[in-house]
Amino acid sequence: MTSPYFTHSSVWTRSGIRRTRLSAFGSKLKHKHTNEDTRPPVTLKVETEETIICEYGSPTPHPHATAQPNTQPNPSGPSRRRHLKIEYDERAEEPGVKTERWEPPDWKRQLAHIREMRRSRDAPVDHMGAKTCYDVGASGPVRRFQVLVSLMLSSQTKDEVTAAAMQRLRARGCTVEHILKTDEETLGKLIYPVGFWRTKAKYLKKTSLMLKQEFSGDIPDSVEGLLRLAGVGPKMAHLAMDIAWDQVSGIGVDTHVHRIANRLGLLKKPTKSPEKTRKALEDWLPR
C-alpha cells in the first residue's frame, strides 16, 4: 500500500515467514472508506465564474483572487473621454470675397420718409441742441468744453431747460477754470431745474478737474477718453466726437432712438438697451 493513511508493520513467525499487517488506524480508515462507498451518489453543482472587464475606472478585484489586479492602462482598449477646447481662427476677409450682411428689407423707404418728415428742421433740438449751445467766438478748447457740458446737462432733460441752463453758465463764464472756482451749491443753482441737477453739479466739478490735470483744459479726442469722464456715457461720447471734433465715431442712441429702431424693425432681433441698439445698428448701416 502506498497511501499515507495506512501504516505497515512486519511480523516474523516462528517458522520464519514474514507477514505484513495494517495498523488500527489504517483499519479504521479502510472501514470508514467502505462505509462511505455504500452511500448514495451526491449530485455535484458546477459553478462558473464570469469575469467582467470594465472599460472605465479602476478594476474591482474578485474577493477570492490572490493575484494583484493590473492597474496599468490598456493601450488597445478605449481611452478616457477628454474635454476638447475648440478655438476658431478669426481671419480678416480676403480681398475680393464679398459676404452678405443682414439689413432690413424696407429700410431705404423708411429712411426716405424720415428725411421728408425732418426736412423743415423745426424740432427743439435743431434750435436748442448741443450744436447751438456754445460761444461761436470762443477758442477751440472752450467751445468743445461747452459742447460737452451741454451734452452732460441734456440727459433726462428737455432741450428748452438745457438751453436755459447753458445760457446762465455762459453768462457767468462756462470754462474749466470758472467751473472749478464755482462752489458746488452755486453751480447747482445755475443748472437747476435740469434732471438730477445735484448729481450733475458734482459731475461737472470732477470732469473739469480731470480736464485740467490730464488734458490741459481741453476735452479728450477719443471715445475711450471721453468715457473716462464723470457723467459721460456712450451716447454723449459719440455726439461730442461729432459736434466738437467733427469726427463720426458711432451712432448716438438714446431711449427714443432705441424705441423707434425696434418699432421700425431696423434691428436683426429686438434689443433691450440703447447701447445694444447702437451696436446692432452699426453692424449693418452703411458707413
Automatic annotation (TrEMBL):
Region (Disordered): 56-81
Signal peptide: none
Listed SMART domains: ENDO3c
GO BP terms, alphabetized: base-excision repair, AP site formation; nucleotide-excision repair
Keyword Oxidoreductase: no
Keyword Zinc-finger on entry: no
Swiss-Prot/TrEMBL keywords: 4Fe-4S, DNA damage, DNA repair, Glycosidase, Hydrolase, Iron, Iron-sulfur, Lyase, Metal-binding
Molecular-function GO term, any one: metal ion binding
UniProt-listed Pfam families: HHH, HhH-GPD
EC identifiers of the protein: 4.2.99.18
Residue span(s) of domain HhH-GPD: 153-287
Family of the protein in this entry: Belongs to the Nth/MutY family.
UniProt-recorded name of the protein: DNA-(apurinic or apyrimidinic site) lyase
Species, as recorded: Muraenolepis orangiensis (Patagonian moray cod)
